Description:
The chain has 571 residues and is an alpha+beta fold. It has helices at residues 3-69, 71-81, 88-110, 148-156, 202-210, 262-265, 267-313, 328-366, 371-387, 392-407, 417-435, 460-470, 502-510, 524-534, and strands spanning 115-123, 129-134, 160-166, 178-187, 190-200, 218-222, 228-231, 242-248, 255-261, 414-416, 439-445, 453-455, 476-485, 488-495, 540-546, 550-558. The protein is elongated.
Amino acid sequence: xxxxxxxxxxxxxxxxxxxxxxxxxxxxxxxxxxxxxxxxxxxxxxxxxxxxxxxxxxxxxxxxxxxxxxxxxxxxxxxxxxxxxxxxxxxxxxxxxxxxxxxxxxxxxxxxxxxxxxxxxxxxxxxxxxxxxxxxxxxxxxxxxxxxxxxxxxxxxxxxxxxxxxxxxxxxxxxxxxxxxxxxxxxxxxxxxxxxxxxxxxxxxxxxxxxxxxxxxxxxxxxxxxxxxxxxxxxxxxxxxxxxxxxxxxxxxxxxxxxxxxxxxxxxxxxxxxxxxxxxxxxxxxxxxxxxxxxxxxxxxxxxxxxxxxxxxxxxxxxxxxxxxxxxxxxxxxxxxxxxxxxxxxxxxxxxxxxxxxxxxxxxxxxxxxxxxxxxxxxxxxxxxxxxxxxxxxxxxxxxxxxxxxxxxxxxxxxxxxxxxxxxxxxxxxxxxxxxxxxxxxxxxxxxxxxxxxxxxxxxxxxxxxxxxxxxxxxxxxxxxxxxxxxxxxxxxxxxxxxxxxxxxxxxxxxxxxxxxxxxxxxxxxxxxxxxxxxxxxxxxxxxxxxxxxxxxxxxxxxxxxxxxxxxxxx
Length: 571
């Protein structure tokens, strides 16, 4: 086991295990308290709903009591029991009193939008029910005698809350709203006079449907017999899956029941456990991070020494180990650095010897000139002198001299792009004297590339290859483009000659005399080898050719200014 692994394990045992033990104890202790609080909170919420419902019921009672205790209402009731008088003034007074009663009843209703109607009812000797006064006169009292709740109220003679039901006892109303009624006797012992206050049960339904704030809850309102009045049906008592709580109204005697799944009721307890677990994990990760940091700091000198040794094994001797301490590891690092200094000195000596050898090879390669080229050039001069006898011989010989001076490398192994292109022009001018004006060449040169340094004599062999390998009798068109592209110098030589197959292209790159009987010059392979030795990948030559479609040669070189010194990569 590595030293770092052991250090991390020791730290975790000393820090994380005690922390986890303490968190587990806190988890169980706090969980019980949170669950008790959750049940108490649910009971309080259900009690609040029950209190809200009692407020509505108590309001019905208050309205009925205000009506019963009002003297004008009592006096009007007593007068209404008398036989109607034929006297016009008496009738007018009774009509005015009835309007006053109706205004009074509407005033009680108007401030309470959930009150749907207030009515004064009278029971006749034959148990028939009539409407004495009310907020409206659409009530069909003839239907009351057939209602169970009416018969129970009359028989008991006490105030009674009528359970939620559809108000189907109106003449013109098609929408039978769900209602809760209060029947209240006007005088004790006299079961002939009643106050009926009708309330919209929708407000109670909304209170119950809003619930107590737990997902998956069921809340229902039940009467004394356990029948569902509003809300959802709740079956069974408390179980392992859910808790059932109840609140009974002191006003109506109805019971509000709620059933809450344990997983929802104790969600806060579960959140607390998750939080404690998350904190434990975070603390463990922080502890692990601290252990890794400490081990990294302690073992850093050894790691640096190991990395340096592995780098040296790959043949790289420049990596020195920093001295971070004055202990035994520091002494070992000092000895290792001294060993590298000795090895680097020996390697430098070997590299210098190899560089001298490669420079000699490059010079030998630079001065290789195909004797066939000189022979054919002089033959062209002789032919021109015999056939023409004109001063063009002077220009031809001058172009030849300039080309020979450049190829002999008297100015060093490198020259500018402008100088290299001038050599190409001299060479093409010589060939144009031989093949005539059917040999064309065009140049497209980026101005900033004119001063870029390139190896001497890399374009003339490629142009020579196009003329003698691609064209028939030297007739064709050559385009040379030089540009800078993303820190590189790109040179393309394109011709519209016969093109080459893949097999011909492979043979051309393998040897210079691939096409017998035609010029090869210094050779494409030698140009590619020169660039590879000087720069290495990703620089070099790429040839694209197809039979009948011509040939394109792309040269990729580093973009180097004129005063930039280039050394062979083999050094």
